[in-house]
Amino acid sequence: MTLRNKLQAAAIMLLMSSIGAHAEQKTLVVWDFKSSDPLIKPYFDYVRNEFQKQHPDVTIKQIAQPADSYYTVLGTAINARQGPDVALLHSGNMSLDRADAFVDLKEQVADVVPNLAGLTGFTRKDGGYVALPLTVQGAVYYINNEVYKNAGLDPSKPPQTWEEWKSVCDAVKSKTKASCLTLGNKDGVDFINLMAAVADGAWSKETRAKFIAHDLSWTSPEMKAVFAKLKQMIDAGWLEKGANSYSPYTDAVNIFAGARTAHVLGLISDAPNAWKNLEALTGEGEVSVALPVAIDQSPQTKADRLEVDGGIGFGVTQWSANKDLAVEYIKLAVSPEAAAVLVDAAGGLPSNTKVDISKISSPAAKQVIQLLECCKDERRIKSFVGVAERKELQRLGQLLLTGDATVDKTLESVERVRQAEIARAK
Length: 426
Hints:
Elements: H1 3-24, E1 26-32, H2 41-54, E2 58-64, H3 70-80, E3 86-90, H4 93-96, E4 132-133, E5 136-144, H5 145-150, H6 162-175, E6 179-182, H7 189-202, H8 205-212, H9 221-235, H10 251-257, E7 261-267, H11 275-282, E8 287-290, E9 306-310, E10 312-316, H12 323-333, H13 336-346, H14 363-375, E11 376-378, H15 387-402, H16 407-425
Parallel strand pairs: 1-2, 1-3, 6-7, 9-11
Antiparallel strand pairs: 3-10, 4-10, 5-7, 5-8, 5-9
Helix pairs in contact: 2-13, 7-9, 15-16
């Protein structure tokens, strides 16, 4: 063979090799409604880039769909059985109602499940998983360290029982000009959050399960005990005056940042009233975290007082031609390494409880993650308040705060609404 022929043969082999490599290149299509958000974009970029490093033959095609029409677009894809390999979903009905379109992940992800919180919201009736949660959501009391110190209190030792909670609020009231707790009850929802926090600290697992199953009357002794504590808080003047005119995401946050209150009941993940924004306003190290207090039982017996729901999660579509790769992508997305990026970038609380907190600078974030590992209780009480009951409770909660409604009349009215809903369902 001449030199010219050898060069031609080598060129042909190189071309064929290039064509073969190109033919083996795969594309994994990922749909979401969050990756265009500047705060959380670094997280999605990390997952994409890290996955492509580990799989050089795979290209991730990340498509950020408009949030307001996401489920309409996803519905069209489901009907046509084409579109993404991986799709982002909200927990609860938004994912469970579309379960048939997604692969049951239970067997493929058994190795990572023990480290994840928030799975309940993505769990099918048969125990399988529609998706794996990336984030979790819940509520805690955030402490303004300055107010605590002015009241002679130690923010590193938050109240654990109702008696300790009373002592803290009495100290704040007598030694400072701040309120003990600020609510943003402009739309009536923060009263429901407070009710859930008190109930979470007071109820046994059996009572809690009964409420979640919609089998607990609003006029039951267990519910009356919760509202008696709420009334005590109102009558003792622990709550910020004018709460019904405040937004939980702006007014209440600014009151907290201005050291006008000792506590605010805020969310734990990527929200204006969560730890990241509060620390940004007060300064890192000026915010501490407290669980809802245990009521009529010991904090040790009632340790699991951080209620959580899954936030958002990734599922694998039934029509995907790359299911195994898609599962690997999701496992990377919920890994401790990805979780650390999520915390740092967006202030989101990751589902993985094994995230390395030594790499997180925020003291409040570390506290929340530690509580998530030790003290979580899957499913939030507030998520199981019926739609009609919620509206009535929002209305009457505002009147309770101003003293224009009684506990008995409130509970009787909400129970009438519950019974009406039960009758309609029949």
